[in-house]
C-alpha cells in the first residue's frame, strides 16, 4: 500500500499503470481459461449448487465482483486492467449464451437438462443419477411446491435452475404421504 504522504495524482498511471501491452494478451488468455474451467466445474457440481441462477450467471457475478473489487481497493492496479477483464467477461457471457442457443451439442455440455423425477405418482428413481439427487431431496422439493402426497403428482420435472416444476392431478387419491413424520413411520427417512 502507498503511504499517504508519498501519493501524487497521475491520470495516465491511474488508467494504464506502467504495464506493457502484453499484459492485455495475458488477461485475454487468463480470462478465457478461467471462464471455461469455471463453467465446467459449475456444471460438474450441479444444479443445487447454483440455485435458480444459471451457471453463466453465477460465473458472471463472481468474476465481475472480483474485477470491480480489485479496481476499487488496490491503487496499484490501473483501471484499464479491470475494465479489460470486465469487458472480456461480458463478451464471454454473450458468446456462451449465443453458442448455447445456436449449437445443440454445445448446449448439452454447457447447460444441464430437464429431468423427469415423478410420473403418475411414482418416483422415477432411475433418473435420480442424472443430477445426483436422492429420494429425500425429491420429497423436499415436492413439499416446497405444496405437495403432501406423492399420488397428487402427475408429472414433476427437475429444471435447469434446480427448481421442481410440478403438475398435479385435478382429483387425486391421497396416498403415499411425503410429510417427514409419515416418512419416518414408513422407515423411508432415518
UniProtKB/TrEMBL annotation:
Pfam families: DUF421 (PF04239)
InterPro entries: DUF421 (IPR007353), UPF0702_alpha/beta_dom_sf (IPR023090)
Gene Ontology CC annotations of this record: plasma membrane
Keyword Transmembrane applies: yes
Keyword Transmembrane set for record: yes
Keyword field: Cell membrane, Membrane, Transmembrane, Transmembrane helix
Family of this protein: Belongs to the UPF0702 family.
The protein's name: DUF421 domain-containing protein
Amino acid at each position: 500500500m502507498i503511504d499517504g504522504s508519498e501519493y501524487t495524482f497521475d491520470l495516465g498511471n491511474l488508467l494504464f499503470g506502467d504495464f506493457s501491452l502484453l499484459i492485455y494478451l495475458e488477461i485475454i488468455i487468463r480470462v478465457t481459461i478461467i471462464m471455461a474451467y469455471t463453467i465446467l466445474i459449475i456444471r460438474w457440481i450441479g444444479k443445487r449448487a447454483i440455485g435458480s441462477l444459471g451457471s453463466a450467471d453465477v460465473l458472471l457475478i463472481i468474476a465481475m465482483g472480483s474485477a470491480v473489487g480489485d479496481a476499487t481497493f488496490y491503487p496499484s492496479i490501473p483501471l484499464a486492467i479491470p475494465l479489460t477483464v470486465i469487458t472480456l467477461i461480458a463478451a464471454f457471457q454473450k458468446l456462451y449464451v449465443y453458442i448455447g442457443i445456436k449449437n445443440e451439442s454445445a448446449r448439452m455440455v454447457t447447460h444441464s437438462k430437464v429431468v423427469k423425477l415423478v410420473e403418475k405418482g411414482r418416483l422415477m428413481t432411475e433418473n435420480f443419477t442424472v443430477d445426483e439427487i436422492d429420494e429425500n431431496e425429491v420429497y423436499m422439493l415436492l413439499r416446497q411446491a405444496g405437495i403432501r402426497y406423492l399420488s397428487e403428482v402427475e408429472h414433476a420435472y427437475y429444471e435447469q435452475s434446480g427448481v421442481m416444476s410440478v403438475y398435479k392431478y385435478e382429483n387425486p387419491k391421497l396416498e403415499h404421504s411425503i410429510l417427514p413424520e409419515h416418512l419416518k413411520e414408513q422407515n423411508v427417512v432415518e
